């Protein structure tokens, strides 16, 4: 998957209290420009950018710059804040490079991109916000359905004899996913089965095991596996014929 890079440029203009070592006064009007290459972002690709802070007062100031995403959706996992301490001389400016990880940003929707400048007592000197509508690119999941002769699934099998038990399980490269499975036997309707689980095989014929996994931030995956069951008499006859040939 091609990773998407984001460029975010912010311009925050501030003013200091005259005669104060640390600025706690009102800020000048601020401007915020947000530039995103694409609205679809891949999980894990950071949002990077620059914050330029201007001290329009005569005195130096020590500030704290915070950059973060905010969402009204309580289910949205936003990245932790980027924080940087800065010292700006009077009449000068400084630029701060920031990077916000998006590894856990899995829910699409509207987010607020916020920049806050605080003094050393954590009073807000200036803040600004811009609404970003983000579409999160879904990641694939690698699903493997297992049909085995033993509970540990050390011996795979695609053909059984009536009266035997098939042990069904799965492997997935994502933890915490929701898993559902159904078994469609030759002598009835499809019914849910638990994974891992044991399936008694009574009727001869073809069985179809369907497993579906889903997880927020990932593309839903479904895999179907067919396996067969033969009558016990057929298996006995085949074993007898093999013994004669030997």
Short description:
The chain is mainly beta and 246 residues long. Helix content is 6%, strand content 51%.
What layout of secondary structure does this protein have?
Blueprint (H helix, E strand, L loop, with lengths): L5 E9 L16 E5 L4 E3 L4 E9 L5 E10 L11 E7 L4 E8 L8 E10 L5 E14 L5 E6 L10 E3 L3 E8 L5 E7 L6 E2 L4 E4 L4 E10 L6 E10 L1 H14 L1
Parallel strand pairs: 1-4, 3-9, 11-17
Antiparallel strand pairs: 1-2, 4-7, 5-6, 5-8, 8-9, 10-12, 12-15, 13-14, 13-16, 16-17
Description:
This protein is mainly β. It has two domains: 132 residues, Immunoglobulins (Immunoglobulin-like, Sandwich), CATH 2.60.40.10; 92 residues, Sandwich (Immunoglobulin-like). Helix content is 6%, strand content 51%. It has one helix and 17 strands. A five-stranded mixed β-sheet has the order 3-9-8-5-6, with no helix packed on it. A hairpin with a 6-residue loop joins β13 and β14. The radius of gyration is 31 Å and the shape is rod-shaped. The chain starts with 5 loop residues before the first strand and ends with a helix.
The biggest sheet, with number of strands, parallel, antiparallel or mixed sense and barrel status, is:
5 strands, mixed
**Rg from C-alpha positions?**
31 Å
Q: Please report which band the strand proportion falls in: under 5%, 5-15%, 15-25%, 25-35%, 35-45% or over 45%.
A: over 45%
User: What is the oligomer described by this structure?
Assistant: single chain
The figure for the number of domains is 2
Per DSSP, the total helix count is 1
The backbone outline, from C-alpha atoms, is rod-shaped
CATH superfamily of the largest domain: Immunoglobulins
Order of helices and strands: EEEEEEEEEEEEEEEEEH
> pLDDT average, as an integer?
76
User: What is the total tally of β strands?
Assistant: 17
Contiguous low-pLDDT stretches (5 residues minimum) are 1-38
Strand order in the sheet with the most strands: 3-9-8-5-6
Distance from N terminus to C terminus (CA atoms, Å) equals 55 Å
Structural class: mainly beta
Instruction: State the name of the first-level CATH class of the largest domain.
Output: Mainly Beta
CATH 2nd-level architecture of the largest domain = Sandwich
Helix content: under 10%
The CATH topology of the largest domain turns out to be Immunoglobulin-like
